[in-house]
From TrEMBL:
Lineage: Bacteria, Pseudomonadati, Bacteroidota, Cytophagia, Cytophagales
Keywords: Membrane, Monooxygenase, Oxidoreductase, Transmembrane, Transmembrane helix
Residues of the FAD-binding domain: 4-324
Protein's recorded name: FAD-dependent monooxygenase
Pfam family, one: FAD_binding_3
An example molecular function term from Gene Ontology annotations: monooxygenase activity
InterPro entries found in the cross-reference section: FAD-bd (IPR002938), FAD/NAD-bd_sf (IPR036188), PheA/TfdB_FAD_monoxygenase (IPR050631)
Coiled coil: none
Domain of life the protein comes from: Bacteria
Transmembrane segments: 6-26, 324-343
Length: 477
C-alpha cells in the first residue's frame, strides 16, 4: 500500500492541501509544531478566484457567513486628503475582492479536517529532516521516523523543509515595516466594506472595515517610527477603538524559491514565496498552489510518479507568483514611494540621472533588478493588467528636454500599462500642475495621478546624448 502524503505545517495552505487530497481519497498526515491554531489576525483580503477554490473544498458555510464583498478601493493623497482614484473591483459584473478574517478561515478548515477520515492531524509535532522518502519528526522530546509517498512543505516563511532540501531563494529588495492594528469598533466608519489607501512618501496608511472590525496599517521606511498611540489610530481610522484585537509591527520581505520540487519533496504557500500585503495576495497565491498541486499529487499517488506532471506545478505557479510579486511591488511603491524605491525608467536603461530633489544614495536604486522586468511582468499579467488600469490611468511627465519621438515611445513603453501624458512647461495644464507642486525650474518631472512627484530630474548633456543615441539605434534597427 502507498505511504501517506506528509504535509508539514497546518497553516491555511497545509490544511487546504490536505482537504483537497481528502476529496480525492488520498490519505495524508498533517503535522504542526504549534499546540493549536494561532489567534492572530493576518490576511484580510481574498480575491474571487480563491472564493471559487474554497467552494470546491466545500467551505459553503464560511463563504455564506464569513466573507464580505468589498465595495472598492479608494486612493487619496495623504496630504491633500483628496480622493484621486476609485477602483472598481467588479469585473464582468462579478465582485473580485472580499474581506474576511484568516482566523475564521482556519477555524472552518480545522472543522472540515476533523470530519475527514483520510487526514490525520498531529499538533506538537515538528519536522526535523527528510531523506529517501523518510522524515524525522520530533514528538514530545522523541524523534520518530515517518515514511511518505510525497512530502509537501507548507511550513511558512522560514521553511525547514526548504532548508533541509537545499532550496535557495531570489530576494526582491523591497523591504518595509508596517505597523498594523486590528480593533473592534461600535461606530461603523463611513468606509465600511471598502479599502482606503492614503498615498504618501512619508508614512502612507491604509484603513478598511467590515462587520465591527477595523484595520489600520501604517507604512514606514525601515528605521521609521515603531509605535503608535490609540489616539493616532482613532484619528487615522476616524472611529472609536472599543477593543484592540492585535497590534504589531511587521517586516515584509519579498522572495521566491528558486526550486519548488526536490525529488519527492514539494514546497507551497509562504514556504515558496512571500510578498508584502499591498494587494492582499500572499495567502491567495498559497491557495492557488494547493489547488494546482493537490490533484497532481493525487494522480501520482494512484498511478505512480510522473515527473513531468509534478514539475508542471512549479512551472505554472512560479510564473504566476512572479507576476503577483511584480504587481505587489509596483502597487506598494506607488502608495509609499520614496526616492530610495522610486521607479526610474531611465535607470532601467542603465543611464545615470542626476536627482535634484533630495540627496540620494550613490549606486543603483535597490528596487530595480536587471533580471526582473517589473513593468513587463505587470503588463503581461492579464486580468491584473485591467486591475491596474482601474487603479492608475495616467502619469504626467513634464519635461523641458527636447525628447525625440523615439524617446517618448520608449518611455511610454516603460510605463506600460499606464497612459503617459507629456507636457512642455509652457503648456497651461503643466503650468497649473507646477504651481500646485511649487516646482519653479523644470527639466524633467514625473507625476503620479495624485499629483505626488515621483522625481524631478535633470538630464545632463552626456546622458541626454546617450539616451538619444540609444533610441536612434533602436529606431534604425
Ligand atoms: C499582517 C499580514 C496581513 C496579511 N494580509 C493578507 C491578505 O490580506 N491577503 C492574503 O492573501 N495574504 C495576506 N497575508 C499573508 C498570509 O497571512 C500568508 O500568506 C499565509 O498565512 C501563508 O500561509 P501558509 O500556510 O503558507 O504559512 P503559515 O500561515 O505561516 O503556516 C505555516 C505553519 O507551519 C508550521 N510550521 C513551521 N515550521 C514547522 C515545522 N518544522 N514542523 C511543523 N510545523 C511547522 C507553523 O507553525 C505554521 O502553523 C498577510 C500576512 C500578514 C502577516
Amino acid at each position: 500500500m502507498n505511504q501517506p502524503v506528509l504535509i508539514i505545517g497546518a497553516g491555511p495552505v497545509g490544511m487546504i492541501t490536505a482537504l483537497f487530497l481528502d476529496r480525492l481519497g488520498v490519505p495524508s498526515l498533517l503535522i504542526e509544531k504549534r499546540k493549536q491554531l494561532p489567534d492572530i489576525p493576518r490576511a484580510i483580503h481574498l480575491d474571487s478566484e480563491i472564493i471559487n477554490i474554497l467552494k470546491l473544498v466545500g467551505l459553503d458555510d464560511f463563504i455564506t457567513n464569513q466573507i464580505y464583498p468589498s465595495k472598492g478601493l479608494f486612493l487619496f493623497g495623504k496630504n491633500t486628503n483628496k480622493k484621486f482614484l476609485q477602483a472598481n473591483l467588479n469585473f464582468n459584473n462579478e465582485c473580485s475582492s472580499f474581506l474576511f478574517d484568516q482566523n475564521h478561515l482556519e477555524q472552518e478548515l480545522l472543522r472540515e479536517i476533523e470530519k475527514s477520515i483520510n487526514i490525520s492531524l498531529k499538533y506538537n509535532c515538528e519536522f526535523i529532516s527528510a531523506y529517501n522518502q523518510k522524515a524525522e519528526l520530533a514528538v514530545q522530546g522523541q524523534v520518530i521516523d515517518q515514511s511518505f509517498s510525497y512530502l509537501i512543505g507548507t511550513d511558512g516563511a522560514n521553511s525547514k523543509v526548504a532548508d533541509v532540501s537545499g532550496i535557495k531563494y531570489t530576494e526582491y529588495p523591497y523591504r518595509k515595516i508596517n505597523y498594523k492594528v486590528d480593533f473592534i469598533t461600535d461606530q461603523p466608519p463611513n468606509y465600511q466594506n471598502r479599502i482606503e489607501k492614503f498615498c504618501s512618501t512619508n508614512g502612507s496608511f491604509v484603513r478598511m472595515a467590515f462587520k465591527d472590525r477595523v484595520r489600520v496599517e501604517i507604512t514606514n521606511n525601515p528605521n521609521g517610527e515603531a509605535e503608535y498611540s490609540i489616539k493616532l489610530i482613532e484619528k487615522l481610522a476616524q472611529t472609536r477603538v472599543k477593543k484592540v484585537l492585535h497590534a504589531d509591527k511587521y517586516y515584509f520581505n519579498t522572495r521566491i524559491a528558486n526550486k519548488w520540487i526536490v525529488d519527492r519533496t514539494i514546497i507551497a504557500g509562504d514556504a515558496a514565496h512571500t510578498m508584502p500585503p499591498y494587494i492582499g495576495e500572499g495567502l491567495c497565491n498559497g491557495i492557488r498552489d494547493a489547488f494546482n498541486l493537490s490533484w497532481k499529487v493525487a494522480f501520482c499517488y494512484y498511478n505512480g510518479h510522473h515527473d513531468f506532471l509534478i514539475k508542471s506545478y512549479s512551472k505554472e505557479r512560479k510564473n504566476n507568483v512572479k507576476k503577483y510579486i511584480g504587481l505587489t511591488l509596483l502597487t506598494g511603491f506607488l502608495f509609499t514611494t520614496s526616492l530610495r524605491y522610486i521607479l526610474k525608467p531611465f535607470e532601467l536603461l542603465g543611464i545615470p540621472l542626476k536627482i535634484n530633489q533630495k540627496p540620494v544614495k550613490k549606486g543603483k536604486s535597490d528596487l530595480i533588478i536587471p533580471k526582473f522586468d517589473l513593468l513587463a511582468n505587470v503588463a503581461t499579467v492579464g486580468r491584473e493588467w485591467d486591475y491596474m488600469r482601474h487603479l492608475y490611468n495616467s502619469f504626467t511627465i513634464i519635461t523641458s528636454e527636447d525628447l525625440s519621438k523615439g524617446a517618448i515611445k520608449e518611455i511610454t513603453r516603460l510605463f506600460t500599462p499606464f497612459n503617459v501624458n507629456f507636457y512642455s512647461p509652457e503648456d497651461k495644464i503643466a503650468q497649473s500642475v507646477l504651481r500646485i507642486l511649487k516646482i519653479k525650474k523644470v527639466k524633467s518631472v514625473i507625476i503620479r495621478p495624485d499629483l505626488s512627484v515621483l522625481f524631478s530630474g535633470i538630464l545632463n548633456e552626456a546622458s541626454r546624448i546617450k539616451i538619444q543615441n540609444t533610441f536612434k539605434k533602436e529606431i534604425i534597427s
